[in-house]
Amino acid sequence: LITEVRSLFPALNRFIYLNCAGQGPLNTRAAARVASVLKIYITRGFLDISEWKAIQSETRSLLAQLLGASHQELAFTQSTTRGLRIAMDAIPWRDGDNAVVQERSFPALLYPWVHAPPAGVEIRWAKAPHAGLVDEIRSLVDSKTRAVFVDWVHFVTGEMVDLAALSQMAEEKGFYLVVDTTQGLGPVFPELSSLRIDFLANTAAKWLLGIEGLAFLYVREGAMDGLRPGPLGWLSGEYETFSRLFPMPDPDPGAPRFEEGSRPVILIAGFSESLKIILSVGKEKVAGRVRELTGQLLEALEARGLSIATPRQPRAGIVSFRPPGDPEAYYQRLRNDGVIVSLREGLIRVSPHFFNTPEEVERVLL
Ligand SMILES: Cc1ncc(COP(=O)(O)O)c(C=O)c1O
Question: Which of 159, 211, 270, 322 suits a disulfide with 30, CB 3.0-4.6 Å?
């Protein structure tokens, strides 16, 4: 099965591709699907509203299946950043509220909190590494905490925060839990119906093997009622036809209301093929393969006595280590050998997916 799937990813024939935390390689089925939509634009000029809706509905169903969520809980966004911003703007902040925000998060989460936070909200920075993060957040939360913003998996070290513990805390304390799952979803599959995550933002482009320019936002159904109505736009409600826009439709009761305007249907169509590949291999098998590969790599790094930034438990798909000598030179040697990884903060970040092999993973050891 893996050999068959590998043939769908031409980059895997040319490189030792171990960089899904940077960008997932594209598969030929997604590319063909993109081409099929482009062909309609080229030959006819426009998509019928029924075609336009069908593309989105198909991809939304696949995502719902992947996450254990419903259609109504999913919105397509342009980026993870946009999804997190929508959460910031939809949360009903009141005077005197505070937000607990993870300081070591990726800038998609961090940047807006540093440079454009919601007015009047006190920010309490949670600074601990992931291992101590839940305890620190617990100590920062009080009755005025309206929301907690965290990354699930650290983009450099692969450290993971315990979503079940945070989700239980959110249940007890009643704050909105907002999570960027971009570096975790794909190697690991949380069952959202059994967690209390209010907002989850994730890109299509990395572990889910989609194309850059598309992401999605999950908003828990039970959280919708208490939110502000927006951000909204003209496509926040469902039109039967584009021939008559008035009276304007009411905003969708669920997350699709946050799809504010025109969207990248071409990318949404391509993404459905990537999701079908992951679902056809199976969530458990995908997660199990990544675990095996990262476990094997951790052992090999340990055997060499290298300094490893990734804890054994819990872990997702990222394994980062400090190479001997100059990290930049090490990274360039790997590139010259056709081994694609990332260099992040002086560490070599290896991020294999289910289609990689044990032999490929060992190639990062020079
Ligand atoms: C944790 C995390 N979140 C988000 C992103 C990307 O965000 P966006 O989709 O807004 O470009 C990355 C990219 O490296 C990431 O590592």
Answer: 270
Residue with tokens 């794909």: 186
- pTM across the whole model: 0.97
Cβ(80) to ligand 1 under 6 A? yes
Pocket lining: 182 vs ligand 1, CB cutoff 6 Å: yes
Distance (angstroms) between ligand 1 centre and the Cα of 82 equals 10
Q: How far is the CA of 353 from the centre of ligand 1 (A)?
A: 18
- Give the Cα separation of 226 and 96 in Å (integer): 18
pLDDT digits (tens, 9 = 90+) for 271-286: 999 999 999 999 999 9
What is the tens place of the pLDDT at every residue in 243-273? 999 999 999 999 999 999 999 999 999 999 9
Percentages (nearest 5) of helix, strand, coil residues in the chain: 45, 15, 40
- Strand-strand pairing, 145-151 and 122-126: unpaired
> How many other C-beta atoms can be found within 10 angstroms of the C-beta atom of residue 32?
11
3-state secondary structure of 272: helix
Q: Residue 206: which of 38, 88, 349 has the closest Cα?
A: 349
HEC string for 110-179: HHHHHHCCCCCCEEEEECCCHHHHHHHHHHHCCCCEEEEEEECECCCCCCECCHHHHHHHHHHHCCEEEE
